[in-house]
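Dock FE2/S2 (inorganic) cluster; give full complex structure.
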Amino acid sequence: MALTLNINGKSHTVAVDPETPLLWVLRDHLGMTGTKFGCGISQCGACTVHLDGAATRSCRVPAQAAAGMKITTIEGLSADATHPLQKLWVEMNVPQCGYCQAGMLMTAAALLEQIPNPTDADIDAWMTNICRCGTYPRIRAAIHRAAEALRA
Amino acid sequence: MAQTLRMTRRQFVITSAQVGGGMALSIAAGDAVAAALAHREPWSRPLGRGAVEINPWISISPDDSVLIRVASPESGNGVMTQCAMTVTEELRCDWAKVRVESISLNRDYQENLVYSTPGDFVATFAGRSTIPERMEYLLQLGASARERLKAAAAERWEVNPAEIDASNGVLTHKASGRSLRYGEIADHAATIKLHYEPAPKPASEWTFLGKASPTKLTNASIVDGSGVFGIDVRVPGMKYAALMQSPVHGGRLKSYDFDVIKNMPGVRGVAVVEPSAPRKQVRWRLSDQDNAPQAAIAVVADHYWQARSALEALPVQWDPGDGARWKTTEQLYDAALEVLEKPGETVDKDQGDALQLLASSKRRVDATYMTPFCDQAPMEPLNGTALVTADRVDIWHPSAISIQAYCTAAEEAGIRPENVHLHQTLVGGSFGRRLFGDDVCMVIAVAKRFAGTPIQVIWSREEMTRQGRYRSLKAMKLSAALGGDGLPIALHTRLGAFIKSGQNGLMDGAYANGLIPNVRVESTRVPLHILHGAYRAPGYNSIAFFVESFIDECAVASGMDPLEYRLRIFDKWPDAGWKKCLEEVAAKSNWGERLPRGQGQGLAISNWAMRGKPHSGTTVAVVAKVNVTRAGELTVERLDLAFDCGRILNRDAVLAQLQGGMLFGLNMSLNEELTIHDGQIVEGNFDRYPMLRMAEIPKKLEVHFGALSGHDRFNEVGEPPVGPVGPAVANAIFRATGKRIRTMPFRKHDLRWT
Ligand code: FES
Ligand code: FES
């Protein structure tokens, strides 16, 4: 069966079982491997994408449920890695192994869309993704700095 | 060294009479091989046109970009960046134009061990990029390349090379006002042969190392999603495999029914993998630790989700084997505790007369501690991609030690090393999980049953967690006799473990190597089917908890403040860095502040990899502050750490490792425990094996640099902080509640108080 998905502003038609989780359609069918597989059960957030702007864990979303929505992945967060979060992530040396960071960035970007000036408590409530390397303190600091940059 | 790389062709068993070698439906391999080989490194961005190799490690392009090859895979600690920094110090190129890539093990093998001979480089334990042999070699590489660039410019300008200055990628002849960029003269430099090796400058003259704190070179590819981890490899014609191994380690596949799934969408076949002996011929000390494939079945399909769905639908029966007799976790724990009551199978250390002193002591402290099985749980699930043909293997892999992956792949495939091509990817965390090559063995074992087709094998999180190479369970009984001044004069320990276990943090630690005059260390091994491996700071991650909690108990028995107690103990230690760590962390954490009941501070100090010597390894002291509600809810409010690793090369990189290591140690202590039921590991995913998240980490996580002694060593910092966090928290809980915590994970303890 063919599904049409709107990803990062482009329309893609894929022949796929519509129940296939969006994560695997992105990764295997479309070769967009920036979105990561970590747990498959909505626990870790490595697979986070935006569906109509909302941070969503794509490992548990059947692809057909995303049809008709605006899907944004890490590859489409900005045209050239210039989203303030991306720039600060590099500058503040946030990633360690980096595997969780696409999900972290997508979640943080959605947070800033909703709450332009988040408190620590907002960050705690939104950033429920797992980072085994322990980069949380830097993620928190970088989100605060990005909020400043976006206000300026 | 050459000898250890020479591998023998191993005979492997493809089928067994019972279940056969799996049934593969035909796959039109066609041009897949050729296509795959043309795209071997789908992530590599080629150097600029006209790049010149100055030596096998350094290439320079006409646009001045410098490519530095690194032997250690990048698994998050910044090792590639660190190695490139060391080369850059002497090469004096423009850091903004430096790029890194992994060495080729195949080239190493073919070209007379060009990468592995010097500096023990193939022992690519990533964290040890700063050992003297490797630093010296990297500095030499940079210095020699720089002098050749100078010599080339000198020839062109017909001046004395000594009059040429090299800086920031530019060669300048001041007297004549001429200059050349490295990229303009690199091809000429490549033809220069120096008749001497220029001496790198002494550390005191470094201008980049220890001064600058550049961020990781890999960051840019992380934040836009372009970085290629093992699981991101895409080879033309590739199929996906979903894997299931014997749920009880050591079991066998009894039967399966392929007919049930053969018409499911995308399904191409199954591969059955027979268990076999560990791969022994692998060089280096890591050797064969539990790296053999377990009995397994893998379903191969066009897409991973198809493979996984079909695997779930596949009827499979296992013969669990001997491991099934371990019915419950309690049975395991009892077995480990039982051996503590008898003299140890081996006496690992016996100095002075500990037993006699304890027998006659009026002031003795006794306690028994235990730590459970834990999984490293890196965020990238285990995976690998391989293309096996009759005479060649290509494997794309997130290995943490590429030489191990290379050798293991050759052996598992039964193909000569010169025909093995390992394509190292980024590594989504390791923490000890991706060292021994068991994942490589499994990937090759599956792919060779689909010869000619590239196969990507992906472990589900559940499969990975239940088929780990774990931090093994350990139990320890400790007894101390205290002298008239309250300090320990004798220590007797017995370890019960399921492996012949290292006792880092005790055997090689300060207490047993001079501070306590009478020490007896015993251990007993309990055989068990559950597989084990390395987990960040092996041995030490348990032992530091036992020893530092126990010393706290001794302080309490002596009626002394735990800081005061340790300061007195370390008074006699010739390495003043220990006391400095204690003093620094105490001052910065406001040690001794008055706190209401339910709150408390705890202290611990340990050293990773000191090998029994002062001025060695990395010393770390941690103060934890906790809050425990009457209902027993624990919050770790603050962690302070002071450390002495001698000297540091990149302050921010050191900070990142220490922060991450503290949180790793905290999660290990609070949360992690694998349990078993009927011989199988119960926990499969993060719902049952919890990880700290943003809201749960201490509000204050402070690293203090004030205890750095400046001693001439650059010891590692990734593993040391894992040890002292747990005991510091447990000691704080004791002060807050009066409850002494002697087992991990702390979350399973009842901490209520009235
Ligand atoms: S992979 Fe989707 S939440 Fe973990
Ligand atoms: S950076 Fe490694 S898991 Fe987050």
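Observed: Residues 1-45 of chain B have pLDDT under 50 and may be disordered.
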